[in-house]
Structures are given as C-alpha cells and as structure tokens.
Amino acid sequence: MSVQIDSLTRRISGRSGKPDQLLLDSVSFTVEDGSFAALVGPSGAGKTTLLRAIAGLDPYQSGHILADGQAMENLNPRERRIGFVFQSYALFRHMTVARNISFGLDILPASQRPSSDEIKRRVEELLELIGLPNMGGAWPHQLSGGQRQRVALARALAIQPRLLLLDEPFGALDPVVRRRVRSWVRDLHERLGLTTILVTHDQDEALAVADFLVVMQNGKVVQTGDGTSLDAHPRTPFILEFLGETLTFPGHCTIQDGQAVFVPDDANAMSFPVSNISPGPAEAMLRPHEMLLVEEKGTATWRSLGNRNGLSRIEARTTEGRHFEVLLPPGHTPPADARVGFDVSKARLFRNGHLLNVAE
Amino acid sequence: MSNGRTKGLPGLSLAVMSWMIVILILIIPPILIFAEALHSGFVAAIQNLLMPDALMAIRLTLFITVIAVSINAICGTLSAWALSKYRFPGRALLISLIELPISVSPVVSGLIWLLLFGAQGWWGDFLIRHNITIAFAWPGILLATLFVTFPYVARTLLPLMEQQGRDTEEAAALLGAGFWHILLHITLPEARWALVSGILLTTARAMGEFGAVSVISGHIPGMTETMPLHIETLYNSYQSVAAFSMAALLAMMAMGTVGVRALLEARSHSTSGVVSDLT
Description:
A: six-stranded mixed sheet; six-stranded antiparallel sheet; B: mainly alpha; MetI-like fold; 77% helix
C-alpha cells in the first residue's frame, strides 16, 4: 500500500496564555508501495506523533492521509488494516503467545473469522516466521526482550496488514540483540514486500534498514530521500550533522583571478574553486573521511590515533588550538611532514542555513 | 544483615518488638472476643446467633454488602479507568474527591444523608409525598455504606491502571477490538488482582461500617440493625454472650475476607499472568 501524507497539521492549544504549539506543521511526503521508510529526527521532532496519526490513534486538525489514493480517515481501525508495533511491545500479559498472535483473528465477526483450525495454522506459520516455533504456549513474561519484540510483530502481521508501523521498535533492546533483530526485520520486509514505516531517533539504524528517509525537526519534514542523496545534497546543515559527524569551516566566497573560490577563515584550510555562487559569507561542511591532509600547505600538526574500520584516524591540531579527527581513506598514507594543511574541497557550502552548491 | 547488628537496633530485638505489638494489638483482641463468645459454651453462642433479631441483622448486613460491593465495583472500576486513561480538566480534583469518604468521619456522612433524606431533611417532604422511605430504612443504610466504601476499588485500581498506560488498549483497538471488548478482555484482566483486592477490601469495610449506618438507620432492632449496630444494642443491654457471639461472627467474616485477599495477592506475585481471564 502506498501512503501519501498531505499537509498534515496538528496543533495543541497553549495552556495559560502560551501560544499554540505545532506538533505537526503541514507535513507532506509519499511512501511508495512496498518500500521501507524511516521517520528520523531528534526527540520532540514529531516522529511518533506522525506515526500515531497515520495509525489513527491521535487526531490532527487538517491535511489528509491517503492509502492507495483513498482517504484513511473514513476507515475504522479494522478496515485500515494497519499493523502497529509499540516501543513497549504492548503484549497482552494475561494471554499466551499464541493467543496474543491470534487476537486480531479471534475478535473478527463470525462471518469473517477463519475457522479455528485455520487460525491455529496461521499462528503456527507466524511462530515459524519469527523463529519461535513451539513457543505458542509460553507467557509473555517468560520471553526475552527480543522474543517479545518478535511476538509483537507476529501479532501485528496476523491481521495481514497492508501497512506496518514500527515505533522505536529496537529502542529497548541491548546493542547486540538490536542489530540482530534489525537485520531480521529488514529481511522480513524483503520477503513479505510489506510497506513499512519505522520511527527512530538513531540515524545509523535508519540508514541500516530503510531505503527512504524522512528527516523531521520541530514538527516539520526537513528533507526526504535515501541516505546517499541526503548525504550528498543535504538541504540544511542540520541534515548533514544529524546523519553523521561533520567538520565545519566558516569562510566566504569571492572572485580570484576571474574564478569564483571559497576561502576558509582558517588559514590552514585551502581555498577551492566553486561555481555559480555569488560572493558572500558561507560555511563549508564535510565528513571526517572526506578531508585530506596536504603537506607544506599549512602549519597544523597531527598525530595518529590508530585505525577504525580500515581507516586511519588522525587528530589534527591548528596553531589556534582547534582540533578534530580526520579519517584517511584506504590508500592514503599519513603525511610524512609534521606540518599540514587541509584540503576541504569535498565540502557542501551553506549560507543562512541553506545549501548553496556542491563542490565538485 | 551484619550492618544491622553493628549499628542501630539489633535485628532480633526489632523482630521481637514487632511481634509483641502484633500480638498485643492484633491477635489478643480477636482471641478475647472468641473467648467471651464461647464463655457459656458453643451451643449458647449459636443459639444467640439464631435469635430473630440477630438473624435479621446478619441477613441485612449480607444484603447491604452484596449490593454495595457490586455497585462500587462497577462505579469504582469505571472511574479509575476514566481517571487513569484520560486527561481532562478537573481530573486532579476528582481524584482527591474520591478519597473524601476516607477522610470524612462516617458519623458526619451519616448526618449528611439524614439531612438530605430525613423527614425534616431537604427532600423530606418530596419523599413523604411520593411514599419513598430512605432514612431509617435499608435504602438509607445502602446509601451510607456506598458512600463510605466508595474509595476502595477506585483507589486500588487507579495506580495500577496509570502504570499500565494505554499501549495494550491501543494495540487491541488497532487489531480491530471495540470499546467493550477492550474493557472486558484487555483492561480488566490486566488489572484483575487489584480489582479483586479492592472488592475484598470494600466487602470487609461494608460489613463492618458502623458510624454512618448508625446515624441514618435509626437503630431499630429486627428492622434496620446491621451486625455492628446489633452488637452495640446487645452489649448496651448487658447481653454480653450474645454481643460477643455476633462480634466473633463479624470478625470471622472480615478476617476471612482479608485472608482471601492475602492469599490471592501471594498467588498473583508468584504466578502473575499464568491464571486464566476474569471473563
């Protein structure tokens, strides 16, 4: 099912004289059928509010949510066919695992309910799918966090949803289990082809599982796209900083010898040519692995910090005392000279919080 | 613990002290009551309980208790549910109002009912004209008991329901369950131990209520006397064996209720979740 969010707005009236607060500020984007989308952003960005609005759990004042082009607000929860997995799992503690999973089928009106044999078979299939066969008779409190998580997923899948919503589903798991459940969910998505929307505040998690990211901040969608395009063309410095470590070099654009160039304020960073940018102040931002150290071009010192994931970690320190970590890609050996300058020509340039151009 | 032995009171003497207090205050009095009741023998005690006025008092007490507990179980559950799952203006005030019957002296609440429903009360004329008797009759006793025992179910459920939050209810709703199905199959089973515990507390309290009932009932032997009131009447007319027999029976009923509650609580801790639904 494709999901189209169209200028969705939710505000809560301010108490005791405070102005109204916009929880969702005309949010619009489309999740294609069969894709895995992640709503990411810092806490308070409105991700969970949005997910709950899509599920029909929370109200909104204006805008529309369309499922395959059909307005969702006219459908009751059963007709929406949405599978929702809560951060707390929300398993029914007084029911066995099997009854948790079959709950959505057991409560169907007799005319639509599958026979009890059929329900039993479906539950067994789902238990198989989540890798917990023969666990149907167990109680939720006997399961580990990761197992509860998977039971919650099976329960959501039992009603054969058209859309799967996951609210911080890995938040309560320890890091090792978390990575395992994460890749399992990704596999499951590929096998079932079910449109999935995930909420997370962890950008690594979003990049690892989702093929479409919706970055939110203060109730607004800042940018959408896949990880690579967001990293290459971040609309605002926030996007770049949110998606990973960044190094920032303030400076200004100017014309030298008939060529537009960006001149960093830091004398150690080298100017580089730019195109189609009017003169004025700007900020150059880049990833630690995109910066190169160049001998005899500056007065910064450096020292090695060892290796990380095959990249050499270098700490660079300017004479003004600023220091940061640079990652040298494989094949780039640390400079022989103790004095270096910075090649920042792979940076994205921002002015007044907006992307100017991408340096080639 | 070794810490306890080196600093402060030694653990053993603390234990001895607590047991002495328990024995003195909680165990000796019921034993004395039973001793007094059986003073003239078991047969005499039973005979006293079979007197018409005594039987009437027992019947009235059971009748009032069953109705009051049923009504308060339903109203208490619904109010705890509304107060814990929804945020609305005046919520904090309502929560403190629920506790009002605990803080107000039962005699005062009995007087209020009399003021409202008595022959000289605010609605007295209206009630007399329509042939409705509330004061000095069982409806009055029921109202007084309802008021005094209202907090117990709501107060035991409220913290539990608040802690449970709305996640499981919302999960059930998204799976297609309707309002009543969620209440009966999700919310109440999850809170069942607190509910049973609250009901038993209400029962113990309803059976033993004296102050409010004493004021509104008019104390008519064989008509509006519940067990506690009848005990007082018997005692004041120097029928001490009869009074203590009735007291022993009432104490046994209350202790039984509390005992069941303790048993259930122990069970709910050891096997939480492994017991079948309420429904």
